[in-house]
Design goal:
The complex is a heterodimer.
Chain A lengths: L12 H15 L18 H20 L18 H10 L10 H15 L2 H13 L4 E4 L15 E5 L2 E12 L6 E7 L10 E7 L5 E5 L9 E12 L3 E2 L5 H13 L20 H11 L6 H30 L6 H23 L17 H6 L3 H4 L4 H12 L25
Parallel strand pairs in A: 1-4
Antiparallel strand pairs in A: 2-3, 3-7, 4-5, 5-8, 6-7
Chain B lengths: L24 H17 L2 H6 L9 H10 L19 H15 L5 H14 L3 H9 L4 E4 L15 E5 L2 E12 L6 E7 L4 E7 L5 E5 L9 E12 L3 E2 L5 H37 L1 E2 L2 E2 L4 H29 L5 H27 L10 H14 L3 H21 L1
Classes of the chains: A alpha+beta, B alpha+beta.
């Protein structure tokens, strides 16, 4: 290939698949099925975590150099300009292999997806190639201590000062902000209009004076989620995404991309597994075996239920993706996928925990795969909270997929300044 | 699906109705023709009347359905059948979906499965022709009573005796047993499963009607006492005849799943409409968050059911290695969530939902019968457990 992207434009799915397969087999190790088991299990130490982040960046760079990164990103921004079918083929060929997991969410979706949709040409040229090379890891600065499900109620404020904006406030639940590079931030730019009409989106580097990153310790010791305190962070107007006070237009699509994570044409996730890790079926067989319960009829029923849910979830995600892509289902179908995936994941955690017997709550090294699941069970609800609660997804399905009346909103026409604001949780 | 009453909905009419997200023009036309035909001939009041009919459907209705193509989709063109799209089984799921949406009468499943098995074996051509024309009804005698009443257990015997085959055993429940003039009986020779074609009038065959939860779908018990038929009645007979029987089971599970998805769709559509029309405390039910969240759960079950039913149909149509796994996942999921969805719809309707006058029970009945006939959800979960265990063991070994 003379030009590095020339050949890709006309590459068929089959040709692409062949090329991907050969490269993947030669360059990517088989994933350790024990990795990515459980829920947010803490790494032994920060050095091990940072080494994994570095490896993810390296894997992304290797895939970029092999022209297997950014499959559906436009060629002018360093992508391959291919189709979702090519991305699916890549995902299938990646099955069971290591992959740059930390670069998928939230860097590729929602952050890069939002930049592609709303960013200026300069912004895209400045960041998308770096993202595809693994040089830039992004975080979404969306939730706040006082704005979780009601995310349009953010208090972080941006005030214009000449060609710059000055940001103050606090953001929370940013995964891995301590090892990330850039943030996509929803801020309030007008307090004197109703809630949704005074928001604007900005981007800025996370490692700078004025951005104070605190790590939150989860109940199991996991410390990758962060809270940021923004103090007089100066952002040039050229780093504003979308129009001033049009942040909710961007935000709506931002959350759409978040719900579409498992279906996004911009995300690489090895097929045949729920989150790119081991299949629930394999994980649960190992647990039942190590807990001495593989022959127990109750355990076998749970194994079957777990596999059933995994298959239905995967096929549903596929259906929602195809349906939205072809216009056969409305974009609101993304909430159906999010709801099902969230409730199914809770049930999966419950099943894994049940299979352990007592070894999930009190274990030693001989308990093998049955170890630790009691801790995972403590975090069971994470799958129904993170990325938007399942309650919000239920509202979305009922109101936007089934067309039922919206929930009453207090003060739809009231300036945000005058809306009652209760206690913050942080 | 319904059009929203709120006036600002992004729903389009018809969305979600089809079992396939992306049918071809011909498939869509075929689907619509069947939907219209069933809508005209089997409205709910007609189904209520058929409660007292001995067979549960009229012969003329069935022949007309056969003319539309209901019986020919699993039979190759060379044998007088033909499909609309690439795979006749996918086309048949469109018909089955509409059968579910209308709780329609008629021996759709047994006729198609038997025709498929006969045509695949290249045998009994005259019988196949009559099945295609809708002038003959076939019953597929697969299931057996306890203690062999789990999917995959068989006690009925098939013995070769010179030029004859001798059958003994009891098969039940058998759909359309009393309406059928031919029976396809599964039995074991001791070392393998075989299928044998037996005219219903053969001496030694006793067919007793059973009572059923479904208003129009009739089941019977078929007793075989030393039933003797010529050895040419053996269907297939190759050494992998077990695989043929299981292919029939997979076809049946695909048809059942598609039909149940149609019934779930009908129940949910009806209840969504009710939620807009029914007012309590001065506002429509659809405005209560407690109910909206239940509707959201139901919509997610329905979409999951659509997705797994389509995946199972495709896997069986292309004879993929995971056909057994996907059909069991469809049966386990839809068997559990189908009746659950219908019960929730009844709850949201309140007292009217448990009356004979209301239509909801027609769909609940269909879902409940479909959940049980080709293995309960628990039996399919057990099969899935076997699949994941053997796969995990293979991975460790390799």
């Amino acid at each position: 290939m003379t030009d590095e992207h020339d050949g890709a434009a006309t590459e068929t799915v089959d040709e692409f698949r062949e090329r991907a397969r050969a490269w993947i087999r030669a360059n990517l190790a088989l994933a350790d099925p024990k990795e990515d088991v459980g829920i947010l299990r803490p790494k032994l130490n920060d050095d091990a975590e940072l080494a994994e982040v570095a490896r993810d960046r390296e894997l992304q760079r290797m895939m970029f150099d092999a022209q297997l990164a950014g499959v559906c990103f436009p060629v002018e921004y360093g992508g391959l300009g291919l189709t979702p079918a090519h991305q699916r083929a890549l995902n299938e060929e990646m099955a069971g292999r290591e992959y740059p997991s930390r670069i998928q969410a939230p860097t590729m979706s929602p952050c890069a997806s939002v930049l592609l949709e709303f960013g200026t040409d300069d912004q895209k040229r400045a960041h998308i190639p770096g993202i595809l090379r693994g040089d830039e890891l992004w975080m979404q600065l969306l939730s706040e201590p006082q704005a979780g499900s009601d995310v349009a109620g953010v208090l972080t404020t941006a005030i214009r000062d000449g060609d710059e904006w000055v940001l103050n406030g606090s953001k929370v639940w940013t995964t891995g902000a301590w090892w990330s590079d850039w943030g996509l931030c929803l801020a309030r730019t007008n307090w004197d209009v109703p809630k949704h009409r005074g928001l604007t989106v900005f981007i800025f580097p996370l490692h700078q004076d004025g951005v104070d990153v605190h790590r939150i310790e989860m109940l199991n010791g996991f410390k990758d989620f962060c809270q940021e305190f923004l103090t007089d962070v100066r952002v040039p107007d050229s780093d504003r995404v979308g129009d001033v006070n049009e942040g909710w237009t961007v935000g709506t699509r931002w959350m759409f991309h978040e719900r579409m994570l498992y279906n996004s044409p911009f995300v690489t996730l090895p097929a045949g597994s729920s989150h790119g890790g081991a299949s629930k079926g394999d994980v649960n067989v190992a647990i039942a075996r190590d807990a001495g319960r593989l022959a127990d009829p109750v355990s076998r029923d749970l194994l079957g239920e777990s596999r059933c849910l995994e298959l239905v979830r995967d096929r549903l995600i596929e259906r929602v993706g195809t349906g939205i892509a072809t216009g056969k289902l409305s974009d609101a179908a993304a909430s159906v996928g999010r709801l099902f995936a969230g409730t199914a994941a809770s049930r999966q955690t419950q099943i894994s925990f049940e299979l352990t017997g007592s070894a999930g709550t009190a274990w030693d090294d001989d308990d093998g795969a049955a170890r630790e699941w009691g801790n995972d069970y403590l975090l069971r609800q994470v799958s129904e909270i993170g990325g938007g609660t399942t309650e919000m997804a239920r509202n979305g399905v009922a109101e936007r997929f089934l067309g039922m009346p919206r929930e009453q909103m207090h003060g739809r026409e009231t300036p945000f300044r005058d809306i009652p604001k209760g206690a913050s949780n942080g | 699906m319904m059009l929203s009453r709120t006036g600002n909905s992004i729903l389009v009419e018809g969305e979600g109705e089809r079992v396939l997200l992306d049918p071809t023009t011909d498939q869509a036309l075929f689907h619509d023709t069947t939907a219209q035909f069933l809508g005209e001939l089997t409205p709910p009041d007609r189904i209520r009347e058929l409660r007292d009919d001995a067979l549960g459907f009229d012969a003329d209705y069935w022949r007309r359905g056969a003319e539309l193509g209901w019986t020919s989709l699993l039979v190759p063109e060379s044998a007088g059948g033909g499909s609309i799209g690439e795979h006749g089984l996918i086309d048949l799921t469109l018909v089955a979906h509409e059968f579910g949406r209308h709780a329609a009468p008629g021996p759709l499943l047994p006729t198609n499965v038997v025709a498929a098995l006969l045509a695949a074996a290249g045998t009994a051509e005259d019988t196949v022709q009559r099945l295609l024309a809708g002038t003959s009804i076939a019953a597929w005698c697969l299931a057996e009573p306890a203690p062999c009443d789990r999917l995959g257990q068989w006690a009925s015997t098939v013995r070769f005796d010179g030029d004859d085959i001798v059958l003994n055993g009891i098969k039940r429940p058998v759909e359309a047993a009393t309406a059928a003039d031919v029976l396809l009986v599964t039995g074991t020779t001791g070392d393998r499963l075989v299928s044998v074609l037996v005219p219903a009038a053969t001496p030694g065959v006793t067919i007793t009607p059973m009572r059923s939860t479904d208003l129009t779908r009739r089941f019977g018990s078929v007793r075989l006492d030393g039933v003797r038929v010529p050895s040419t009645s053996l269907v297939g007979g190759a050494s992998d005849s077990d695989a043929d029987v299981w292919w029939g089971v997979h076809l049946a599970l695909v048809i059942t799943a598609a039909e149940s998805v149609g019934a779930m769709q009908a129940a949910l559509d009806m209840t969504v409409e009710w939620a807009f029309d029914r007012y309590a405390f001065g506002r429509p039910l659809a405005s209560y968050q407690a109910l909206k969240h239940r509707f959201a759960d139901m919509a997610s079950w329905l979409q999951g059911a659509h997705a797994i039913a389509d995946a199972a149909a495709t896997a069986v149509a292309v004879r993929s290695d995971d056909a057994g796994e996907l059909t069991s996942a469809a049966a386990a999921f839809i068997g559990q969530y189908g009746p659950e969805l219908a019960q929730d719809c009844i709850q949201i309707h309140g007292g009217i939902g448990v009356t004979f006058e209301h239509d909801l029970h027609l769909f609940l009945r269909r879902l409940v019968v479909n959940r049980s006939i080709f293995g309960s959800p628990a039996e399919h979960r057990a099969r899935l457990a076997d699949v994941v265990q053997s796969r995990a063991t293979r991975k460790v070994a390799s």
